[in-house]
Design goal:
CATH superfamily of the largest domain: Gcn5-related N-acetyltransferase (GNAT)
Strand order of the largest sheet: 1-2-3-4-5-14-6
Number of strands: 19
Bound molecules: coenzyme A
Number of domains: 3
Helix content: 10-25%
Number of helices: 10
Length: about 425
């Protein structure tokens, strides 16, 4: 058996696609509605790609933002994955290049022979050569990617609330306006809105080209068509939007559900106005919202904070720190301090502050020791340093080093990415 790992040529695109789950129909690996899915089914049904789909996907693979990599066994493609070039917003607002691993699969007959290990090695080398200090992915299973250095860095919630349980604490008068728009208008609104959101939201990812086109073609999977709601401020500027569905249900128990698939607001007024309408939509009984941040403010706007029931929590973006020094210098910090970190055997002096940081190799003794997985989880500030220390994954060598690093890393809001790749 001869194995060759290399990027594919344009002529090999369809052979490569036939290996991948999204061209073949995903396995039903989610036992319950996922944190990113607002529908009732465990996983939206997927069907094998049609020849027309394959033509379209094959053309997409020629774009410069995607780098497909394949494992050839005796000349035939047996496994594949790809890196997409995206950006992630880090604390301080810099949008840092991230190699996004996506569409990973090895044919069932070639699994557990090290093909993914070799593909991943080639892809991460390619990221380093291009100067990407971070790689990322979202994981189908929690056991696969830790071994390559990836670790959960952002998380998302799915929640639901009964309409009759909703009462807002405060009176509210909207100085702006709400409007239902068509998918074409929603596409242009989302493009601008998401750019403004990701400029200020730690963890948010740049959308892949075409992300906001064809919003009317979102997979319906029996959930009805997508409706597009937009909020404008008093000056007429868009400052919030939502995409929701009102699925038809044959079972009365499931009837009257409003599913929120996407929701963004730049201001507190837009946030309150959009939820005000969605949570009191005529003829509905219940609202289900997916892909929500873990620090959803809505709970704290209700007279009954228990009304909002969390039905799923899941890791979202996994990070892999490919260049410790550059990654630590790319972000800003919530306090000013100097710490020596031993990361995966190397020692780094981190001189950090609200304006940025310098990070240099050092022979000084370390305040803390941790591994690359731990740094990936801590990097955006979504998990406390002490939490990992209590799990035995960060070692403290000097007094208060854990709380000092915690004070540096924590952002104001939990990191969150509503967009993936
Ligand atoms: C997940 C998948 C890509 C792994 O490919 P593979 O070529 O079999 O993986 P490798 O042989 O290189 O395995 C590397 C290591 O990961 C482990 N591993 C692989 N798949 C695993 C899984 N699903 N669960 C736990 N461990 C796994 C192997 O045991 C091996 O461990 P080692 O480093 O201790 O030797 C492949 O099994 C697959 O296509 N699964 C179905 C589709 C899927 O889940 N894709 C992921 C989409 S995000």
């Amino acid at each position: 058996m001869t194995i060759e790992i290399r990027p594919i040529t344009p002529a090999e695109a369809k052979e490569y696609l036939r290996v991948l789950p999204y061209a073949n129909g995903f396995p039903q690996e989610e036992p319950e509605p996922s944190a990113w899915y607002a529908g009732r089914a465990a996983w939206p049904p997927q069907v094998p790609a049609t020849p027309a789909d394959l033509d379209r996907y094959a053309e997409q693979l020629q774009a410069d933002w995607i780098r497909p990599q394949a494992a050839f066994v005796d000349g035939k493609i047996a496994g594949g994955s790809a890196i997409v070039s995206v950006e992630v917003t880090v604390p301080g607002g810099r949008q840092v290049a991230l190699g996004g691993v996506t569409s990973t699969a090895v044919l069932p007959t070639y699994r557990r022979r090290g093909l993914l290990r070799q593909i991943m090695g080639a892809m991460l080398d390619d990221c380093r050569e291009r100067g990407e200090s971070l790689a990322g992915l979202s994981a189908s299973e929690g056991t696969i990617y830790g071994r390559y250095g990836f670790s959960p860095a952002t998380f998302q919630h799915r929640w639901e609330v009964r309409r009759t349980d909703v009462a807002f604490r405060d009176e509210f008068t909207d100085t702006g306006s709400l409007e239902l728009v068509d998918a074409a208008e929603a596409g242009s609104v989302w493009q601008v809105l998401h750019e403004r959101i990701r400029a200020v939201r730690v963890g948010e990812i740049s959308p892949l080209p075409g992300r906001w086109q064809g919003l009317d073609a979102l997979p319906a999977d029996g959930a009805g068509r997508a409706h597009h709601l937009v909020h404008r401020d008093a000056a007429g500027e868009v400052d919030g939007a939502a995409i929701f569905r009102l699925p038809w249900a044959t079972d009365p128990a499931d009837a009257g559900e409003l599913q929120v698939e996407a929701f963004e607001a730049l201001t507190q007024e837009a946030y309150r106005a959009l939820w005000g309408l969605l949570l009191d939509f005529d003829l509905t009984k219940r609202v289900v919202a997916a892909r929500r941040p873990v620090d959803e403010p809505l709970r704290w706007m209700l007279t009954n904070p228990r009304a909002l029931k969390l039905t799923r929590t899941r890791d979202n973006l996994w990070l892999n720190i490919l260049d410790v020094r550059r990654a630590l210098e790319a972000r800003t910090y919530a306090a000013s301090d100097v710490l020596v970190l031993e990361v995966a055997g190397g020692s780094y002096r981190l001189d950090a502050g609200p304006e940025g940081a310098s990070c240099t190799a050092t022979s000084e003794s370390a305040d803390l020791s941790l591994g690359l997985n731990e740094l990936g989880t801590l990097y955006l500030g979504g998990v406390g340093v002490s939490e990992l220390a209590h799990a035995g994954r960060v070692a403290e060598h000097t007094t208060r080093a854990l709380s000092r690093l915690d004070a540096l890393l924590r952002p104001d809001r939990a990191p969150h990415n509503a967009v993936g790749f």
